[in-house]
Amino acid sequence: MIIAVTRLPEKAGRDEATCEEYGHSCRIVSPLRSDVYDTQVQAFVLEANRGAFDCIFFTSALPAELIAPLLRTGARVVAIGPQTARVLAEAGIAAETLPTFYSRDFVPYLGDWIDGKAIGIPRADVPNPGLIRAIEEAGGIAYEYRCYGLIQTNTPLDLEGADAILFTSANSFIMANWERREDILPIAIGDITAEAMRKGGVEPAVTGDGSMTGTLGALNTYLSERRQ
């Protein structure tokens, strides 16, 4: 299949190679663009490098790309997925990787260790009150730095010849300018994205586990079952 993947170009990473591994080809289509807040990036790096955080949680690959080359810290570092961990490793930072692909699992992953700890979170300018509340309820102190914004492009997505469209986040669905056609299979990368799609009147044919590999595996299972 030809899959249109809604992704910031700078976050596409290995998407094309991963699609090929699962027997598909992909096209990156971008309903959003990033706007980096340089002052917030610098502020986070200064605080991290002076030892202000016991743990740093990278919730996506883009802040890792912006910040990791500048980090000089002994803090515990946690990445939300293998792509983010890979970016950190390329900058010489060894990171733990969450066993799932959702920030809601960050606090359960750290367990009792989080009590009394300062957690630095460089992230997009998108509220995540559930994460902050969970950290505070577990006795941690959250320091959130909004290092970049997400701006709607309003450019119609290029779906010419595409067999499917894979939404990689709730925002990438909500802000997408696309033609809804019955011949294009709608796919959600995870349950949060799937919920946003349903609220927008689109039922995902396939819902992944929050990762590209898990979603493509679920897609192949769906296609195999449909052929039977």
How does this model look, in words?
- 35% of the residues lie in helices and 24% in strands.
- It is α/β, with parallel strands linked by helices.
- The protein has a 6-stranded mixed sheet with strand order 3-8-7-4-5-6. Strands 2-1-9-10-11 form a 5-stranded parallel sheet.
- 40% of the residues are buried.
Q: Please list the strands of the largest sheet in the order they lie side by side.
A: 3-8-7-4-5-6
Unreliable spans: none
SSE string, helices as H and strands as E: EHEEHEHEHEHEHEEHEHEH
Determine the structural class based on helices, strands and strand pairing: alpha/beta
Computed over alpha carbons, the radius of gyration is 18 Å
- Number of contiguous helices: 9
Beta-strand segment tally = 11
The biggest beta sheet is recorded as: 6 strands, mixed
Considering the chains and any ligands shown, give keywords for the structure:
228 residues; alpha/beta; 5-stranded parallel beta sheet; 11 strands
